[in-house]
Amino acid sequence: MAMTLTIPKLEMSMVEGTLAEWVAADSSTVSEGQVIYILETDKTARDIEAPMAGTLIHKAAAGETYEVGFEIGEIV
To answer: What is the mean pLDDT of residues 71-76?
Structure first.
């Protein structure tokens, strides 16, 4: 079962975040809890972990800013 990855709302006032870097490569196998990307907000940079194990598919480019809820990838 696939899981959609979206930009999470990490702070109450957060409306967008920058996908600073994909730590895990496109089409790579990831483990639950493994850091897969770095998200930058106005206040901080956070490591975001895989919510489940599977194959990571990138759907958004690193270095771009996206609205909270925007689909950036999936794990299948």
So the answer is: 98
Query: Domain containing 48 — which CATH number?
Result: 2.40.50.100
Cβ atoms of residues 39 and 17 within 8 Å: yes
Name the residue among 21, 15, 26, 35 with its Cα closest to residue 73.
Answer: 26
Q: What is the pTM of this model?
A: 0.94
Sheet with 64-67, side-by-side order of all strands: 45-49, 35-40, 16-22, 64-67
The number of distinct structural domains making up the chain is 1
Give the Cα separation of 26 and 34 in Å (integer). Answer: 14
Between CA 9 and CA 15 the distance in angstroms is 7
